[in-house]
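Input chain follows. Return structure tokens only.
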Amino acid sequence: MADQNPPGWYPDARSPGQHRYWDGAQWTERVAPLAASPVVVPTKKGHGCLYVVLGGIAVIVIGIVALVAVVGTAAKKLSIDVGTPAMREVTVTSCQPDVPGDTSVQGTARNTTSKRSNFLIVVVVDARDGTQLASKPSAVSNVGAGQVANWKASTTAKYAPGVTCKVSLALRSVSVKP
């Protein structure tokens, strides 16, 4: 690739089935599986995270539609909270290296509803300079009313001092009968 290509994830010519990160000047050692890392090529600095979040939301919406189609007869109605209500219930408790040196994120999901809930959580790992290194979904199912459940997301982002982990999206679904 020539220097005119913007920084972003591109298919790795040396290793089919994965992406490699182009920093705008050279290929880095950062790689990710093809299915786990969307190809994000920002046209302006700072928009990459927006594209990843929007892509993540699209994947979640498609997943919800599929879930409702499959569970439709068993759960007469599905109540879904996206954004602020669910975000207040999900926290990151740990952002640290795992055994191979990748970043492992752990946290809790508190069910403040009166019904059993499921949580879909998307976490983002950022470098010290704010560059997004990875995003990863996690899920917690069947959390009782008033209960707290633990969740974990293991990423392929190499852990380094100054790395931050945060919840970028939280979705809570509650099955309710009409």
